[in-house]
TrEMBL record, chains A, B:
InterPro entries: Amidase_dom, AS_sf
Claim: Membrane is one of the keywords in the record: no
Keywords: Hydrolase
GO molecular function: hydrolase activity
Record protein name field: DEBR0S1_25906g1_1
Pfam families: Amidase (PF01425)
Annotated Amidase domain residues: 90-541
Binding site for substrate: 195, 221, 242-245
Residue positions of the active site: 146 (charge relay system), 221 (charge relay system), 245 (acyl-ester intermediate)
Length: 554, 554
């Protein structure tokens, strides 16, 4: 695998970009103004250096009640809200405080609109008081949103400077369904330029930092969602994933994430530069959350509203109630190496730790032999850039904004700026469909229920360094669903030294493994894993991930 | 709408084609040899001219028992087989006789293998006698297959001369599932060159004739299935449809057909020249049958076997048991004119007749206003030919076979031989998705349950004349499912004169309406209609079509 092309097009125009700076400043000012005094973390609690675990800071300023609320899962909170034991306002204010602190400590938000959130919470309480009923299964739960879903009456920029003042006058359907289920909105979270980095940098609000170690990246592209979930600044949030954008931040930040099978949640009115992205490899929406049960609640609350009635591209598969599998009934194949880039020490430790725990619990554990990962990942890159990056180039050039390092990398994937012709495009689609069957048949042949693998070669990386998406985007091209969960382990310099004796098989492997150059720099980064199930069987996967995580973290 | 390009590429090579002639002859000889003496219609019963209704001929040579069997629906036959009241051999022999006659009278078969069918029937009877059980829900039912599905150990040519001796060593998955459900195979039916005509001509066995009037075409591309169903030579058959290929022959021949929503039945190992056809507009498999109940039986027998376990591209939507709707609860919008080519007299009569019957039954009937049919049909044409017809050109040029008139027309649809680039390809996909929602939203807005429309501008046409696919391929691009059913009416020269006063709005309209130049030529052609439902809700559609047909034919 190599980045087969280099991105050479010049989309930058400093003079043009200059004209956008006042708009960017206005946008940032509004964000700063969104940090309300009543929720604000005292300035002196904000560390003046990086490399800090800032997850420990908000608890210092929260009341016991606020702490209890924000430490709870959505499933627990919702029960208490439905029972009238908690008010929506009470819940909202706890999360508003914690989310505000999260933003101050990590730069995770693009928009904060706490007053609107509070009004919404009040109206929900009023409804409950007057009717004795809740409005839906998420009644009163503070839910965060990645920025690029259209939000009625607000700017939606999708990480592009040109759209920094573009107000969208409609709702993304999935956002609207969350709202109708009773969610309270108050924060829209950050994403990288082009929404195509496993990192966070953009020319609007800049980098977002990993709460576990602020020298590191949150991953991306649902960068702000990853940070906010680790900071417990929302119950759960809506992310999106076409190459790892839910899973990478969930893994890097040490929380849960589901990339469901495509066309189960609606993509209607999600903004991006890529008009054609829904065809050969599909972006999907999904939750970044703090427990398997919350993923279940999230998915059920949307799908029970029959999104297919408002979006003909959604498949009418109900979100089924399934039982947790008995742990000892499972056969799990572990992928220790995808044959392209071997994971570094802490990830291998996580995999081995998981294996031991699972074997001890009676799981049948076998080794997963990688299948044509190189070709599939390269094909996926060509799918992203099949239009010769035209849509993205146009959106970038429209403001002349500086091109971020990782935008350049993403624009060079596969065919890069050369694009493909329709014959090649269809060949890629055929390759995809062929390997969907090869993978499914292989799982069937060996009786494999789930595949356990890394989400990335390493733990959270240094900002703007990750080039290799293979551990996540393999599954985007195959469209097998994945759950990310934390193992409870963290990178520990004492036990996770880089393996300096390893001989890399390629430039990309040497580059990627070389990033893990000094374990100390990665201290406290969560070690997370990815569980992959069969296409369309998301419900079973979530339940399996629940029991697997329970066993591993016992 | 116009055929925006002309197909100018020369794929013909008479010298090369000469070298294929012995292979074609061998193939034809085998077909002739498949007409067994024991099932053969006496030569003197074969009319020596066209323009004949040959459906009336086989009953003259069938025994009372054979007649009763072949006149029965699959649903009824299967009950009797399961109860042991009929043997598989008894059923098979009746259909073998009628299918052989059907082929002699219409040229509907590409392969006949009656001995294998008989052996299979015998083995099913043996199994039943020994175990008291049937092998599955189609136990002992004679089922026909369009030729282009891979059949283990037999030639699969997909209508191309180059493949006239290509033996395929695997099963098409859907065919295998029919077999596993208990079907008996004995006939593979004809299709046109490129499988892209709403007609039947190819350079292997030539034209197939409409049983109701042998001067007319069966339609296509499931041409042989249409003829065989009208001749009652199988219980039902497996067709395929990317532009009307199930619906057109069902309509022209006066039988039932379902084009289900995509990815409900597996396309695995269906042969065609188009490697990329599954991406932007999808071919689907579906039944050509003789009743709504049989469509239900057919679909259920396959989907209950969970095809998604053997094909990851199939969506795990079970075939649901749904109730027939009360006729008076329905709101049906009737499309009298798609705004591109207005239907001719007998079709308008059929629509008006249906309207009267439905209104009398308490159906809320409104008029369907066409939505951008021109643009969508043209887009669909560009989707077919997006690769600049490369795959088809290569398959044609490989034998240098003469290019059939309607192949040339299909290769000129939309972008034609110019093809499109990826940007345009993705724009077409976006247009498709946009209009799927526009159509769904429109149905929702007006409370429309189903849309009733023609399947084509006219009744069965003269061979090799149909250019306009808009009444069917509109629904391929939108992927809304359709059922074709006969109204019981037939073209009648006394009441269906051409409307010579009509002023055509375009060349294509003038051409297509001009084909209906003399009602006498179309005498006895069935008047069929098309009922369209919501995407994925195939089950409800089939039940609705059942009650609608019952009402109209009362």
């Amino acid at each position: 695998m190599s980045l087969v092309t280099e991105f050479t097009k010049n989309t930058e125009d400093p003079l043009l970009f200059e004209t956008f700076k006042p708009k960017i400043q206005a946008y940032k000012n509004e964000l700063t103004a969104g940090i309300l005094d009543e929720y604000k973390l005292p300035e002196d609690m904000i560390p003046n250096k990086f490399g800090v675990d800032v997850t420990k800071i908000p608890p210092k300023v929260l009341s016991e009640n606020e702490l209890e609320i924000t430490e709870s899962t959505g499933t627990v909170l919702e029960k208490r809200l439905q029972a009238g034991e908690l008010t929506a306002v009470e819940v909202f204010e706890a999360f508003a405080k914690r989310a505000t602190a999260a933003h101050q400590l990590t730069n995770c938000a693009m928009q904060l609109f706490m007053k609107e959130g509070l009004e919404r919470a009040k109206s929900l309480d009023k409804y409950f008081q007057e009717t004795g009923k809740t409005v839906g299964p998420l009644h009163g739960l503070p839910v965060s949103l990645k920025e690029h879903y259209m939000y009625k009456g607000k700017v939606t920029n999708a990480g592009y400077v040109v759209w920094v003042d573009r107000i969208t006058n409609d709702w993304a359907l999935t956002v609207k369904l969350l709202l109708d289920a009773g969610a309270v909105f108050y924060i829209r979270t950050t994403e990288p330029q082009t929404i195509m980095h496993l990192c966070s940098n953009n020319n609007i609000i800049g980098l977002c930092r990993n709460p576990n170690n602020t020298s590191l990246t949150t991953g991306g592209s649902s960068s702000g969602e990853g940070a906010l979930a680790a900071m417990k600044g929302s119950v759960f949030g809506l992310g999106s994933d076409i190459g790892g954008s839910i899973r990478c931040p969930a893994a890097f930040c040490g929380v849960w994430g589901l990339r469901p099978t495509q066309k189960r949640l609606s993509m209607k009115n999600c903004a991006s530069a890529c008009t054609g992205e829904a065809e050969v490899v599909c972006c999907v929406l999904g939750p970044i959350a703090r427990s398997a049960d919350d993923i279940d609640l999230f998915m059920d609350s949307i799908i029970s509203q029959k999104p297919w009635e408002n979006d003909a591209t959604v498949i009418p598969l109900p979100w089924r109630k399934v039982q947790e599998p008995g742990i000892s009934t499972l056969t799990i194949a572990i992928c220790y190496d995808d044959g392209v880039v071997k994971p570094v020490t802490p990830i291998l430790r996580g995999l081995n730790y998981a294996r031991q725990k699972l074997v001890a619990a009676g799981v049948k554990v076998i080794e997963w032999k990688p299948i044509e990962v190189d070709e599939l990942v390269s094909a996926c890159g060509s799918m992203y850039n099949s239009d010769a990056c035209l849509d993205q180039i146009n959106a970038l050039a429209a403001s002349g904004e500086p091109l971020k390092k990782l935008s350049k990398v993403a624009l060079s994937f596969g065919c890069g700026e050369k694009g493909v012709d329709v014959t090649e495009y269809q060949r890629l689609a055929l390759l995809r469909d062929t390997y969907r069957n090869v993978y499914q048949d292989t799982m069937k042949k060996f009786g494999i229920d789930y595949i356990l693998s890394p989400a990335y070669v390493s733990v959270a990386a240094k900002p703007e360094t990750v080039h290799y998406w293979g551990y996540t985007n393999l599954w985007n091209i195959l469209d097998f669903p994945n759950v990310i969960f934390p193992t409870g382990l963290r990178c520990d310099p004492l036990v996770d030294p880089p393996d300096t004796s390893y001989k890399s098989r390629s430039d990309i492997e040497a580059y990627e493994r070389g990033l893990y150059d000094d374990a100390k720099k990665f201290e406290n980064a969560p070690i997370s894993l990815q569980l992959t199930g069969k296409r369309w069987f998301d419900e079973e996967l979530v339940k399996a991930a629940k029991v697997v995580e329970q066993e591993i973290t016992k």
